[in-house]
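Researcher: Final request for today, and then I'll write up notes for the group meeting. The sequence and the SMILES for flavin-adenine dinucleotide follow.
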Amino acid sequence: MRHRIAVVGSGPAGLTFARVLHRHDYPVTVLERDPAPDARPPGGTLDLHEGLGQLALDKAGLLAEFQALSRPEGQAMRILDTAGTVLRDWRPRPDDRANPEIDRGQLRDLLLGPLDVQWGRDVTEIVPGTRDGVLVHFADGRQETFDLVVGADGAWSRTRPAVSPVTPHYTGVTTVETSLDDVDTRHPDLARLIGDGSVAVYGVNRKLVAQRNSGGHVKVYAQFRAPLDWHTNLDLADVEAVRSSLLALFDGWAAPVLGLLRHGTAFVHRPLYVLPVSHTWAHVPGVTLLGDAAHLMPPLGVGANLAMLEGAELAESIAAAPGPGDLDEAVRAFEEQMWARAGRWAKITTAGLERLVSPDPTEALAHFDEVQPS
Ligand SMILES: Cc1cc2nc3c(=O)[nH]c(=O)nc-3n(C[C@H](O)[C@H](O)[C@H](O)COP(=O)(O)OP(=O)(O)OC[C@H]3O[C@@H](n4cnc5c(N)ncnc54)[C@H](O)[C@@H]3O)c2cc1C
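Model: Predicted protein-flavin-adenine dinucleotide complex:
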């Protein structure tokens, strides 16, 4: 028996879920708010871990294609102090495939493959328990029903209210993101500073990270502790004003490091929100959540990995469930497994954020030494 299954969202969670179901010849409706795959810039680079994101890609039959696209050299990580002195310069062995990097756009295209995503479908509300199943409301007034709706719709999920009243809260740490294009040609000094992977500089309650993407593109993240309204007197659309404000905030840091901000082309403000550690809910038949919708946590390199593995695992459980009662049992069992694993990672990443954006920058170095293989 084939159930009517919909997934809301075509991020890493939703696409991996749909792709693994597709591999099992199981039909699934993918509902995505964006009008097209390229409607928004796809974002920076992701490192996919061997036992998490890569395992999910294996379950989708896409590991070999990932290995061909990904950048193992992107695992390189350099740490400087604010005076520009190199404190750590970690480089992967040539055969190291533990956490290779891939551009988000490349990962999205890899997962999309043969999937028939319904673009421009903005879900506004999920109503479980109607006579014909779970009702999905759309912004254009349309409605559809399914046996199972999987909310993979990210931090501000419209599916989540059907199972949980909890909403994300601000961590006290915000990010301003900028980028550099064609870095090897236009900014060779910065290209050398960044190396093949990432460079991170930790100061008091603030840090700067630059990460190489493919094609000479670099994403730069300025992260600092600040109240949510820190920019009240700043026009965030005014590139020069934001640049000056950041340069003032990082005043006294070495000139080459500040070059990462000086040459940034546009600035995007992203305050860091999280769901409570160990967010769970009373099981609601016909609705579940995956990825950031279920367990938004600080961005310390696992969110997409967990989202993908959950998508793959839920899809495999559904494909193996023969009857209607088995579907609900499969979802319940999946939720227990997801909550346990995500809860562990939420604790780790919450503690990690405290140490990486800390009044004592030596904490950040100690954190790096604990998590980085020697
Ligand atoms: C700066 C930064 C760096 C990061 N780096 C890493 C990293 O290196 N490794 C890692 O594992 N994680 C990383 N993360 C975390 C990672 O980005 C997220 O955990 C991951 O994207 C979550 O995937 P998702 O599919 O759950 O949600 P999302 O990626 O948010 O996707 C949700 C999708 O749902 C769609 N949607 C939303 N609302 C609706 C609606 N109402 N109707 C229909 N569709 C809707 C959205 O358009 C989107 O396509 C990083 C995060 C940040 C902010």
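Model: The first helix runs from residue 12 to 23. Residues 8-14, 31-34, 44, 46-47, 121-123, 152-154, 158, 221, 291-293, 299, 301-305, 307 surround flavin-adenine dinucleotide (CB under 6 Å).
Researcher: Thanks, that's everything.
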